Every structure is written in structure tokens, then in C-alpha cells.
Amino acid sequence: MKIKEVQKLIQDKGLDAFLFSSQPNVFYLSHFRSTHAYAILTPQDKYFLTDARYYERAKDFLKDWEVVLIKGNPFKVIKKFLREKGIKYVGYEEDRVSCTFKKNLRSKYIRWVGFSGFLKYLRSLKTKEEIETMKEGVKRSDEIYRKLLEFVKPGMTELQVRGFIVSEIFKLNGEGESFPAIVATAEHSAIPHWETGKEPIRENAPLLIDMGLLWKGYCTDFTRTFYIGKPDEEFKKVYEIVKEAHLRALEKAKVGNTVGDVDKAAREYIENKGYGQFFTHSTGHGVGVEIHEFPRVYYKGEEAKTPIEEGMVFTIEPGIYLPGKFGVRLENIVAIRGGVGEPLSEISLELVSI
User: Fold this and answer.
1) Which of helix, strand or coil describes residue 207?
2) What is the H or E stretch that residue 169 is in?
3) Which CATH code is given to the segment(s) 3-118?
4) What is the bridge-based pairing of β-strands 319-322 and 284-286?
5) How far is Cα 233 from Cα 254, in angstroms, rounded to an integer?
6) CATH superfamily placement of domain 124-343
């Protein structure tokens, strides 16, 4: 874990300490999951504050942290703790807290300074261990998808298919979905973030599956669109365009390029094939302890200039969505290893009919 890098960042910002309050960042730093905990880091020390529900377990798990019990009002405990430690200049996650939270931090003894995205860059560069953990999760996601191809039958509802996915996640010791799985039959697949419902799976129609699981606190994200029955020529044409767009984006996923280059490669190919107006989202996003992380893989905005670096992990997921007809999306998580993008999934991008 990059604790030393985070502590150096705190020192470089001229802070005495930093208060991390968001669950994702507290987990990222400690690998201890709870619903009520705070991590306070100084350039030298690590403190973990939590209530009685987690205190004993935290003490056992976090051997190299000082674990502090929260009794009563957490803000009073935090401010008293900082005063006793002589800590006066403290950063906090301004982009992840409410106005009420900020109001409760006020103290005549402590100078608070808010930061947005304090860890976003550090979190975007995964360690070898993090990538291996994510690959373990993707391996299980792949296994679920293979089983799903044998399970799905026309007449089942979208929700029944999602139920199968969730059940298999737990059978494989996953910690749950990393997001609510999208199961979209026929014209529903033309809505990128369709809400899985009670619609029966259609025969002679596409089925889009967008799913992910949590493995050791890290997210997977995977999409395939396959066909139930014999695909028609229009579907096959669109599918091949999306597949080629995906592969062109993957070619650009390497050190020396920007994330904007990745998006442009997919987007320009789809536009040249006459479907530009039907590609309605970015080509991808960072992924890690949260399903959407920095950077956004898109050609517009400041993040488009983000250079691709060793250890980055993001999705590549171009799509074409024809309203009232069907949609096709193909998504893999890609890790930058040895300077180039390596898909973590072993599932082929070739069209599957069942």
C-alpha cells in the first residue's frame, strides 16, 4: 500500500495531518472495511478512529496503526484527539463531505483546509499487488459469464438473470456486486444504463450483460452483448464495428499516449462508420476500490490530457445504441503493465450466439 506516498503528499502540502472520512479512501488506506471510521495520517504516523462496533476487530487487524475508540460525538472526539496530539493544520476531503460535516469540524484550535481529489492520482496508479487482486476478481467474473451463457433461456426475466449473477458471486466468495448488474434484452440494450426489470428475455434478440463483483474490496466491470438465436445482418454489422473500435482503443492504451487518445481511437472509428451519434458516453473510466475512478477516458475536458502511466487501470467500453432496436457494448478492464494495455478478462470479443 502507498501509505508512505500519501504521507509524503501530506508533507509536501505543508499539512500537519489529513483527515480521511470517505469509506473508499479509509478502506484504500487501511484495507479495513467499516461504515463508521476515520483515518488520520501525519507525515510520520497513522491513526484509525472507529466506534465500539469495529474497535476490537480494528485493533486486531491494524497492527501498525494506533486505533482510537470513538465514544459519543465523533467530531468532538476527532477535535480533542488532534488537540492532544498538537496537530493544528489539517486537510480534509472537501469533495466527499456535506456542509454539515464541514460545519461540525470548526474549531478555534485547528485550521482546516479542504481538498478535492486528494488521492485520485495516487489511486489511479495501482501497485502490482492491486492489479493481481483485480485480476483475481476478473477471473471470477469471467467464470460467472461462462456459466451465464449456459444458464440463460428465453422467457426468463432480466431480474432472474441478475439473480443468477448475484448468486454466483457469493458462491465464488465475492463480496457482492460492484454495481447493480444491467441485464437488457432486445431494445432495452439500446439504453446504456438500463435498469434491470421483469421483462422476459426475448428469443431472436440481443442480450446485453454489464456486471461486476467486489473481490477483496476491489471492483470488476465487464460487458458483453450476445445474441439469442440467429443474429441478423444489421446486428452483426454493428457488433463488428464496436469490436473493432474496442481493439483500436486498446492499441492506444499505452505509455506515451493520453486517455483522450484512447477515446478518440474508438470514437473516430465509430464516426467514420456513420454511427457517431449513437455512441453516447465516454470510452471508459478508471476503476479500483470504486467502480468509477480517475481518469475518465474521454476526449473532452481537462482529464483528456492525462498521460497514460504504468499501473493505470481503466475500462475500455465503446458502444453503439440504436433507439427502439438494440445496443451493443463490449467492455474489458485494462491494466497498463510493461507500458501497454493488458485486458484482465480472458473472454473473447467475438460474437456469441446461443
Assistant:
1) strand
2) helix 158-171
3) 3.40.350.10
4) unpaired
5) 34
6) Creatinase/methionine aminopeptidase superfamily (3.90.230.10)
